[in-house]
Amino acid sequence: MKKDIILCGVGGQGILSIATIIGEAATETGINLKQAEVHGMSQRGGDVQSNLRLSTDVIYSDLIQKGGADLIISMEPMEALRYLPYLSKDGVVVTSNKPFVNIPNYPDEEAMFAELSALPHVVQLDIEAVAHEAGSARSANVVLLGMAAKYIEILSADALRSAVAKIFERKGEKVVEANLKAFDMGAEASK
To answer: Is the pTM of this model over 0.85?
Structure first.
């Protein structure tokens, strides 16, 4: 079994934290993992992208070829569209539906959402609103991971929850609980 995932968003949104959580879950469950990251101008709100390749077999490359991604997990809808050439024909896009408009020539939102909605397998949610409802506005990325959990398949939701707890444990029990609640609310929203 394998799962090729592209994580994408804008610098500072928590993409690399999602990658760390998935990596921790893979390590703890004995799943092979290769990861490649592109930070771009992440310190200035630029594109951040990570290729995650998970498999029960040996993985020879850390990059996902065009048409090879099973899943795109995106913190930002325009960034999800940027990586569509990498999505397989049966692939799934899980994305925030709240644009992060940080450039003057940001695409027309109506056209952007029409393109996203035309995809055969897309899940969209205002992850920031859900994170706020969960009690931690900074947990939008974990809401997104919760939404994507059922599509990752090679890793169980329990393994991902356990990794969330482990990654955030140094920040204290309150932060762990807020992130677990955010994960659960994201998972519930994608049902």
So the answer is: yes
